[in-house]
């Protein structure tokens, strides 16, 4: 029987995780839209104000929104910015690892792990008022270390080839 599922040990899916990481970086935008709708009691499609209804400006100007909702919406915007700022290093790490010939299983593990950590980071960042402060730092540093591991693996693979 033929399986249509990829074999993570042999099929290189790491390049596919770059657009997936981009989607994960933009995912807090959905939270911003829904939370601002709930906080301002206005539908997201309401175009009466000059800033977009889901923007931080709309919620921060609304006195009906509570401070917890405002803070979470602002942190969601910061999580988007942080995710987009880290996209470059992740894409470079995936490209370096694949160009150097790092094994598919290892690249899949590192890149899928990075996407998972970034997904968790977004949630930890938005809802940090419910979690210990160290969790956000641990999630961020884990993502950075996964990228650095891809670069190190690329360097080790290239060195092994050139020394032969």
Q: How much helical structure, as a percent, in the residues?
A: over 70%
CATH level 3 topology: Four Helix Bundle (Hemerythrin (Met), subunit A)
User: What is the CATH domain class?
Assistant: Mainly Alpha
How many domains would you count in the coordinates? 1
Unreliable segments (pLDDT under 50, ≥5 consecutive)?
Answer: none
Series of secondary-structure elements, N-terminal to C-terminal: HHHHHH
Average pLDDT figure: 87
Question: How many beta-strand segments?
Answer: 0
Largest sheet geometry? none
Q: Give the CATH architecture.
A: Up-down Bundle
- How far is the N terminus from the C terminus? 41 Å
Briefly note the structural class of the backbone.
mainly alpha
Description:
This protein is mainly α. The protein has a single domain, classed as Four Helix Bundle (Hemerythrin (Met), subunit A). The chain has helices at 17-26, 28-40, 56-61, 67-100, 104-126, 134-162. Helix 5 (104-126) runs antiparallel to helix 6. The radius of gyration is 20 Å and the shape is elongated. It starts with 16 loop residues before the first helix and ends with a helix. The mean pLDDT is 87.
Outline the secondary-structure elements:
Blueprint: H1 17-26, H2 28-40, H3 56-61, H4 67-100, H5 104-126, H6 134-162
Helix pairs in contact: 1-4, 1-5, 2-4, 4-5, 4-6, 5-6
TL;DR of this structure?
By secondary structure, the chain is mainly alpha-helical. It is 70% helix and 0% strand. The protein contains 6 helices and no strands.
What are the key terms here?
single chain; 164 residues; mainly alpha; Four Helix Bundle (Hemerythrin (Met), subunit A); 0% strand; elongated; transmembrane
């Amino acid at each position: 029987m033929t399986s249509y599922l990829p074999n993570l040990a042999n099929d290189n899916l790491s390049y596919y995780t770059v657009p997936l990481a981009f989607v994960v970086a933009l995912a807090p935008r959905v939270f911003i839209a829904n939370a601002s709708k709930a906080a301002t009691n206005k539908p997201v499609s309401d175009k009466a104000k000059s800033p977009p209804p889901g923007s931080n400006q709309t919620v921060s100007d609304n006195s009906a929104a509570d401070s917890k909702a405002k803070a979470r919406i602002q942190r969601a915007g910061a999580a988007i910015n942080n995710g987009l700022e880290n996209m470059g290093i992740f894409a470079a790490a995936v490209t370096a690892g694949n160009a150097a010939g790092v094994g598919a299983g290892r690249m899949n593990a590192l890149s899928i792990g990075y996407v998972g950590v970034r997904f968790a980071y977004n949630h930890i960042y938005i809802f940090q008022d419910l979690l210990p402060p160290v969790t956000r730092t641990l999630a961020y540093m884990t993502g950075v270390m996964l990228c650095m591991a891809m670069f190190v693996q690329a360097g080790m693979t290239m060195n092994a080839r050139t020394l032969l």
